[in-house]
Automatic annotation (TrEMBL):
A Pfam family it matches: HHH_5
Gene3D superfamilies to which the protein is assigned, alphabetical: 5' to 3' exonuclease, C-terminal subdomain
Listed InterPro entries: PTD, RuvA_2-like
Annotated protein name in UniProt: Uncharacterized protein
Amino acid sequence: MVIGKPTFVPVQDFEMGFEKIVKIAHSLGVCKQQKIREKLKAERRQLVQGMDQYLKVITSLPGIDNHDANALCQAIGSVQAIAKTSKEQILESTDLSTDKAEIISRFFRDPSFYSSPKVN
């Protein structure tokens, strides 16, 4: 099979030719479906890995757990958006406590807060 040149399939009669055309079209369609499925699977893997990374980053903040990270993701979105969001906006859009909202806003704005050693 050469790209740009039609493929000729020798057949004995018209019915056999029609059957061959249908089989070729079906096999090409199956190949395209498999490629689409593979692309969708790869996209899903990327999204899941992205969410795992997101959870790792957000739960690394002191006092923030998975529930809080999911609430932030649904209400605000990306880590960059969370970094730009004020304490009041976090309180309005999520069910986080004022202490947690304060920790999040201070973490992204106050270098002395995130660079100081944490003792639990």
